[in-house]
Amino acid sequence: MSDTIRPLDPTLAHTVLETRNLGKVYPNGTEAIQGISLAVRKDDFIVIIGSSGAGKSTLLRCLNRLVNPSCGDMFLNGEEITRATGRQLRRVRQQVGMIFQQFNLVRRLTVLENVLVGRLRFCTTLLSHTGSLLRLFSEAEQELAFSLLNQVGIGNLAYQRADSLSGGQQQRVAIARTLAQNPALFLADEPIASLDPKSSEVIMGLLRRIHEEQGIPVVVNLHHIDFARRYAKRIIGISAGGVVFDGPPEALTEAIIRDVYGPRSNDPTLAACA
Questions:
Q1: What is the CATH number of the domain that holds 160?
Q2: Three-state SS for 146?
Q3: What angle separates helix 139-151 from helix 167-179, to the nearest 10 degrees?
């Protein structure tokens, strides 16, 4: 990482997150990402595409510091976060919400309780944490959780256990839980990879609606070129750990797809497979 941090580019006034020459090398020597510089603006709905192992998931996990970058710099709302530790790091992870392919719900808890887990960041004392974990949530917190569940279309499932839901329903719970954090940025790592086509449409449509109605920038990792073209406002293509394309969906040509995916780009299953 550089010793001197340059201030955030003043021309990027609406930038929520910026990376500069971001790289990650794992202990086994694998260089997952290299030299990635990008800006996520408030009006962005970004889909990142690339083959398995291209570095998509590593990049997304670096953005909220679930993975520590090996080099480069990151800024969240103008604040340098590359070296964040302790309280600052917790704040970064609270502000950068994230959902995953496997949902990561507490399966024995109810849908409502899973959403309320997203409110734990607002509990400032040990007593508050203990109360929350014992399901003693305030009326205001429960009303917010119900509102979020209604937003994602599953308010009627609030008292069902998470492990009784379908995959698409569980992903909607995960979205509601992330919204409960009041995030400044919403990340989604392969959110439809485990879902059927109908549920995939629902989840992608929901993420796009959240972006448009609540003004939250969204960054999604996908293999699906068709979904990327239909839902993204901006597409980033990654190959061998580096950005090879960054532009609007209409600029994603077949030649660029070959650059992103290599020879496998001719595989007809790419448009539909996860």
A1: 3.40.50.300
A2: helix
A3: 130
